[in-house]
Amino acid sequence: MGFFKEDIAKIKAFVFDVDGVLSAGEILLNEQGELLRTTNTKDGFALQFAIRQGFPVGIITGGNSEGVATRYRNLGVEHIYLRSKDKKADLADFIEKTGVSRDEILYMGDDLPDYEVMQAVGMPTCPKDAVHQIKAVASYISDLKGGQGCVRDVIEQTLRAQKKWKFQDMKNLANS
């Protein structure tokens, strides 16, 4: 593997885990026992923007929440794998459907179920609070925790490196 900034210039697709990446590593239960998660709106904006720039985006999760699927479908994510028992097999399906190669995929995971799929992509990444085994195989560890903007971090850096982040030249927006 090369340097992070060089490697992200080759990225053509993004794939993310949900719990601990797109949401914090905590799940709330309501009175009916339904699982509740929080998501980061800045992550959502970056996902939408990447999709508008032509990047295929996938989500692979062991969870089974239609709420998760609905949230990301509404953002434009077409490739959503719920109840994943074999993340590598789901990654292979994503590759087949999108036509990107493994080397062109940035994957972000945070825990042991992500280990094998992280070894199978060109750019394995993780949030700051990932388990140490995942950090050991990551080419990049975000300064941000899962559910707190780590997805925005890797998408923005990738698009900046490829000169596709149209906000690069904006000055101080607070004064506008």
TrEMBL record:
<dbReference type="InterPro" id="IPR023214">
    <property type="entry name" value="HAD_sf"/>
</dbReference>
<protein>
    <submittedName>
        <fullName>3-deoxy-D-manno-octulosonate 8-phosphate phosphatase (KDO 8-P phosphatase)</fullName>
    </submittedName>
</protein>
<keyword id="KW-0460">Magnesium</keyword>
<feature type="binding site">
    <location>
        <position position="17"/>
    </location>
    <ligand>
        <name>Mg(2+)</name>
    </ligand>
</feature>
<dbReference type="GO" id="GO:0016788">
    <property type="term" value="F:hydrolase activity, acting on ester bonds"/>
</dbReference>
<feature type="binding site">
    <location>
        <position position="110"/>
    </location>
    <ligand>
        <name>Mg(2+)</name>
    </ligand>
</feature>
<comment type="subunit">
    <text>Homotetramer.</text>
</comment>
<comment type="similarity">
    <text>Belongs to the KdsC family.</text>
</comment>
<dbReference type="InterPro" id="IPR010023">
    <property type="entry name" value="KdsC_fam"/>
</dbReference>
<dbReference type="GO" id="GO:0046872">
    <property type="term" value="F:metal ion binding"/>
</dbReference>
<dbReference type="InterPro" id="IPR050793">
    <property type="entry name" value="CMP-NeuNAc_synthase"/>
</dbReference>
<feature type="binding site">
    <location>
        <position position="19"/>
    </location>
    <ligand>
        <name>substrate</name>
    </ligand>
</feature>
<dbReference type="Pfam" id="PF00702">
    <property type="entry name" value="Hydrolase"/>
</dbReference>
<keyword id="KW-0479">Metal-binding</keyword>
<dbReference type="GO" id="GO:0008781">
    <property type="term" value="F:N-acylneuraminate cytidylyltransferase activity"/>
</dbReference>
<dbReference type="InterPro" id="IPR036412">
    <property type="entry name" value="HAD-like_sf"/>
</dbReference>
<keyword id="KW-0378">Hydrolase</keyword>
